[in-house]
Amino acid sequence: MTPRHADVMFVLEGVPGVLAVYALAARHEGGFDLAIEVSRSSFASAAHYALLRVLSYEECGRILYRVPSHGDLLPRPMVNATRLSLTSAERELARMRVGPLPSAVATDMSPSSDSAAAEPVRRSRRLTRPPSDAPFSALVVDLGDDVHESLRTVFRGDARHRIEPDQAAAAETALTRPFHIILCSAPAALGMRGFLARVASEDRAGGDGIVVVAPARDVPYVKWNLARWHRKNPILATPIDDTLLRHEAFREHVELFARAAAAEVAGLEGDRIHRPCFRRFQVLVIDEELATEILFSSGIPGGGADVALATNAIDAFEHVVSRDVDLVLCSATLRADGGEPFYRVLWRLSPGLKRRTVLVTPPDAVPASAPRSSPARFVERPLRRETIARVIEDFTRG
Q1: How many angstroms separate the CA atoms of 260 and 266, rounded?
Q2: Which of 265, 256, 272 has its CA nearest to residue 364?
Q3: I need a labelling partner for 369 at 20 to 30 A (CA). Which of 24, 47, 70, 140 fits?
């Protein structure tokens, strides 16, 4: 057995679903030089990620995976193949070359002994959050242009992205510079020298916020791998859904969510509304804040208009589909199922409300430099009677 074959056998020991490994007698037209039998096709991804510890992507592409079944014929490349097995001596030599298996240590997110000796651990460093008024920033680790384009689409020009292909450089960047979101490919994230391991060696709790990106077919294995080491990292499947990406980015950054919403409506010119002749002006306030509910419980604001309050998405839907609405004050932070901003769902339901929507944002969420329009397209919490009256007056003036 060659050292390369021994290393392959060593890293596959204990991988779920791997039944046997074969060395092929000679290169065939398919270019395969190793064959791996797995109990189910879904376990091939588990073997693939384990092999990345000792093989390149190109070498992994020359491996034939097979799910044996009763009575089937061997594929042509496996004719005269040799089944591999490790002796104790070969296993120890492979352990010296590759390092211990993840199961041999307390956690695969801890640095190996040799890397710990070479690089002193500075446990004082932590992943930090940018200031509330900082533009959106993302660290993208070992991911392609498609993810970068998704970020540009979701966050438009108000974004700064840093792309790092190397795990070691990316970990150093993450621990020394603040980012709103960090996305890392599954191959780069997992493993004893992976990105998660390097970050967790100094900030284990903060590392749980790193988003792992994997092909949809590999998500079950990535979840299993993270769960067995008690990791809680969110996972995004490729191709990435923009709504899910927005949800992950804004999960811990409400001010960013409100700022992106304000930027979206600031470019829309608000429609002036003529007061109806035969009915009162209808206003719907959609806000989940307790302070707003208390305001309405002490008397309905609005003067000469009928102002209603909806504190959740279901109540707001029922109101919009059952009666006329002339103006909407909608919470910029309220989300529908799946994390999509609720005001966007509302616009799909009733496109005419797009230019008659005013966003209610948290205090100081919208920077002073944000463009202002008349009538106003966003107001800050807490909502007050005079604020609602002023918005109604702005939209009905003239």
Answers
A1: 10
A2: 256
A3: 140
pLDDT per residue as tens, the chain (398 positions): 788 888 888 888 878 888 888 888 765 444 567 888 888 877 788 888 888 888 887 788 788 888 877 556 667 667 677 888 888 888 888 888 887 655 433 333 334 444 444 444 444 578 887 776 677 788 888 887 777 777 777 666 555 777 888 888 888 888 888 888 899 999 988 877 788 888 888 887 778 889 999 988 889 999 988 887 778 889 988 888 777 777 777 666 666 666 666 666 655 554 555 555 556 788 999 998 888 888 888 777 666 788 999 998 888 888 888 888 889 999 988 887 766 788 888 888 888 888 888 888 887 666 565 556 556 778 888 888 888 888 888 887 74
Residues 6+ positions from 268 with CB-CB distance below 8 Å: 354, 355, 377
Of 253, 218, 257, 252, residue with least CA distance to 235:
218
Residue 372 structure tokens: 């202002």
138 within 8 A of 180, measured Cβ to Cβ: yes
pTM here is 0.46
Contact 305, 392 (CB under 8 A): yes
Structural domains of the chain sorted by starting position, each given as residue range(s) with its CATH number in brackets: 3-99 (no CATH), 136-252 (3.40.50.2300), 265-396 (3.40.50.2300)
CA distance 29 to 112: 40
